[in-house]
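Subject: sequence -> structure tokens, single chain

Hey, anyone have a minute? Need the predicted structure for the following. Not urgent.
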Amino acid sequence: MVYIPGFLVSKVYQRGSLRNIDDGFEFCFVNRMTPLQISGMRDLSVDVDGRLYQADKIKPILSGQPISFSDGALARPIAFAKDSSLVIRVAGDHLSNGRHILKISFITNEYGGASIKVSDTIGESEPGSRWSRIKRRLAGERGRERAGPLKVEGELGGVSLDPDFGRLEVALRREEPDRVPLFEAEIAIPIQEWFLGREISSARDEVEFYIRAGYDFVPVIPPFFTPRLMRTAPDADGALSDGDRTRAWLIESEGIIKNLKDVEKFPWPKAEDVDFSSFSEVAALLPPKMKIVGMLSPAAIFGNTSQSMGLENFSYALYDDPAVVEALFEIIGSTYVKITKRLVQAPRLGAVFMSDDLAYTEGTLVSPKIYRKYVFPWYRRIGEILADAHLPFIFHSDGNILPVLDDLAECGIKALHPVEPQAMDIVELKKRHGNRFCIFGNIDLEHTLTRGTMEEVEQEVKKKIRELAPGGGYGLAASNSVPDYVKPENYRAMIIAAKKFGKYPIRV
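Reply:
Had a minute. Here:
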């Protein structure tokens, strides 16, 4: 399940819309970003303060028209146009006056699974009282005081907080900065909230998290969606945890796109419709030396193309129906090129990160010849745009990508992430290819961060810094991302250990 970042949620949730109605309560979203179309929706649920409401209690109303669905099938495709409103009505008890935490989870055919968490308030204890007016005025004054860049205060692991993107730039040049930088492509919202000790509901909250957690950048995504099918695990016996029950998985044997007709009728998002306003919002909050990393993710050219058909069907189509494959790559690749051209104009941009899984543990998902024919030409065009803008190109892929490292270098990629321990030996990778790539990774997710102790985390961080940091060109990160099933205390132990032991010259 993808957790929608707070700075994106704040753009779509209509704060103040939560209210009681005759048979329950309702709240509202307004699409202020990108036009969307949804042909199927499953596993819709609403959690209010820990109480779960399933789909049979939920009635979505889009632009005044009720939406009906059964077993995931919609009576008609939903066009969620820009500036249109989506009201969610929930049958149940009335909510009490005060603040409530809402979590909305769902899976759609086109865009996969997502979880949106917001807070809103119903009523007030003394409506219209003098004290309530004073509180509102004080809140407004505090809001004005908090406008502008966040102040940097405090320390982490005995090191003063001092976010400075120059530190990451030095590492990307494969040189030694003052200390080993931290780098993560994605940190699940529940982990961020645990670390901060409060909910993440705005761009300001997320920027504060990245400062306090010791990063030199904030990742920002220009939201771009292509079709994919996802499912949740069956839970007939009720044995799954709440997290596993809502976690969605890609379906390799199914896809929205099956033939050229499907390609032609799907409402592909246009690059010019992608919303970039979050970049300006985040940029205005950054301390002077902190920057943004623009994220072309969670799946880019190969991922979005193969997932739109399902990897199994895509693999057959490479031989049985190459026309549909070529059409998909043309649409998705050219759109990413256009998005990149817009992205390099974003304020306070320090680098661009592209996520596109090309491999599994043993090797590439398809023959490197397929990547060279359909994928890498688009990477090269993106690399040229970034090189012209003097922006580093960072690349993420799971699995063993050794067979295509030369190709990635030729595309202008300067850094690799996350180097899964089960797929590649990161020490050997740096020894053989550290003259071409900065390397980010690879604290183990299979055991250390998810099931290990804080002492085990510290020992692994020390070992990675000792083996990889000398000479520069290394940034410490988890071996994929920081998902919600990581032990939060282990995440904290990892970033504290990086601060304690990562100072150059390395002496651990």
